Amino acid sequence: MSIQHTKCPGCGATVFSQPAMSGSNRPESTIQCEYCGSQFRVSNPNYRPDPVVHTTINTYTTTYRNVPDSRPARSSGWSNASDREHKVARILGYIIGWLMSPFVLGLWIAAFMKVDDFPIMIPAMFTGIMLFFFFIASRSGRELRRRRGV
Ligand SMILES: [Zn+2]
Question: What is the pTM of this model?
Fold first, then answer.
């Protein structure tokens, strides 16, 4: 930051521009003479025009893998999910499914032992949930194998 000094057009005294003024990025700055109080404008030697902002349009290249399997993906979300997500879905699906199985079996036994007051809907519903987890797990496993080209 250079301190600019000019002659005051009013009284001829040497006037220094305030550092704050020279620091601002304006083509001119207003200086007040400390002797006679008159204000005048001087060009700012530190002025730099604003750089022209170039807008770059980023082009995203999508790489399509040529998978030998000719079956089209049923849902784009399924095939867009990452390998890691499928691995988590496969593991969690099997774990939850297997953890549920003794519970579901117990529900079926209970339903058959107490036929009158135990609605068959309950074991059927939990069986459906369990099968859903197994289904998710097996679909993720199949998707992972498809990606590996096995
Ligand atoms: Zn002056």
Answer: 0.45
